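README, section 4: Worked example with a bound small molecule

Sections 1 through 3 covered apo chains. Here we extend the same pipeline to holo records, where the ligand is supplied as SMILES alongside the sequence. The molecule in this example is magnesium ion. Nothing else about the input changes; the structure line simply encodes the ligand pose together with the chain.
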Amino acid sequence: MKEKRVILSVENITKRFLGTVALNKVSMELRENEILAVIGENGAGKSTLMKILSGIYSSKEYEGNIYVNNKLCQFRNPHDSENAGIAMIYQELNLELDLTVAENILLGRYPRTKLGFVDWKKMRKMAKEVLERLHANIDVNATVRSLSPSMQQLVCIARALLRNPKILILDEPTSVLTENETKVFMNLLHEMKEQGISCIYISHKLDEVFQLCDRVIVLRDGQLICEYEKKHGYDSKSIINSMIGRRLDVMYPQIEKKEDDTELLRIENFRVPHTSAYGKSIIKDVSFSIKKGEILGLAGLVGSGRSELVNAIFGLLPKTSGRIYMEGREAKINNPEDAIKLGIGLLTEDRKKNGYVWSMSIEHNMTLAILRELRKGIFIDSKKEQEIAKEYFTKLNVKAPGIKTLITSLSGGNQQKVILARWLMTKLKLLILDEPTRGIDVGTKAEIYKLMVDLSKSGISILMISSELPELLAMCDRFIVLGKGVVQAELERGEANEVNIMQAASNT
Ligand SMILES: Nc1ncnc2c1ncn2[C@@H]1O[C@H](COP(=O)(O)OP(=O)(O)OP(=O)(O)O)[C@@H](O)[C@H]1O
Ligand SMILES: [Mg+2]
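The generated complex, written as structure tokens:
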């Protein structure tokens, strides 16, 4: 078989940030009609490489060369890269939330009438057409804020497609998608490949990568470590080992049967309003309890109200009705502060909105929730603060020069680790984790699972939401399945499997 033509090649790219070499002499190529995966641990340099390809970092800001169709390209800005046929979907979706779908898709390139006014009609038509190519049934007049994350993702892709790219770069595009949406999305990428668009695909979901991608390259600490081809078969163990540079023996720790039957928290008859549909309830009537030290899994399809329910328990969203009992006594939770006082912590799904203090260091972001315990008179015991921050910095393998580094300069996955550490270090009674491993690399996932088990052994209860069923099944003692606003099923570990959970979730 003839080798496919190379359409993009990168030679000896080195990119430095203050104190870090993010990319160290990386060379790679992308071929015609190919989906190429770039994988690696959090902070390995994946996003940085893609930002170079998409012109976010200009050619003056790195060493090395980029060739598109054998032509040397020196991008000064994203516009130059676009003109060379490269489009990028960023790890953090960059939409104007208060503009409509059509406006977002055509942002910066509104069609004009002869008189120079914006041609709204044409704009809607163009937006509709490109969404149809994606088989996306989205109202072009809706404001982007009202869309689900997966629909927002499709809007980003539509925007990229409108520029007729030859090369599409996707940085963790499925981290916000459900399993079904992911399937549809992967079909779409296949279709685009058939239409002559090559993709560079970044993801921490290796199953997806192996299924979708023709070739995989692995980055570690800014260096290209190795390359695998689908036609030779993927060996996931050896790929994982080359990613993390050590052997990973067990992914999931042993979960022992819990002896303590004491109830920690019980919620009764929770009713929670829809956040966007006025007058409707997303949670209609939900009651359940959690025992001390138990890891309870909250399963359900996206849109089943899992996040809304835990946000309402935590006092982040209002509830229409419902009672909470903590250790047998009725508790009033009207805001997150009330919840924290009772010993409840929540790692929200949307860490960007509710998580970071951007102007602070890793250390201070981590210790934000335990400042009270660190108080020594009127001061903060900064020695102790540093010790604790360092401990979790190491435990979670945060990639950064040190704990004083500003959180803004971290890679996506490493920012998440910092927020996770914030809750892990608090002496809570109940920790609610909403998609705790989203965007996190395999090696660190294993660390997080181990930490969860340690917490539960020390008597802390955990309520876990995850869209990745294998992870949920492996980690939880018991499962509550939500659907249509009520509890559809309650299953014990051992009795639950992917099939009966999905059946209960879709109520079939
Ligand atoms: N603006 C910046 N200033 C300083 N350092 C940075 C900046 N952007 C990235 N880095 C550093 O460069 C390295 C590579 O980061 P990058 O975002 O490329 O990682 P990544 O492979 O995309 O990780 P993730 O899987 O977590 O998204 C990291 O050590 C990161 O801290
Ligand atoms: Mg990244």
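What to look for in the output: The radius of gyration is 24 Å. Residues 17, 20, 22, 40, 42-48, 91, 399-400, 409-414 surround adenosine-5'-triphosphate (ligand 1) (CB under 6 Å).

Section 5 describes how to batch many such records.
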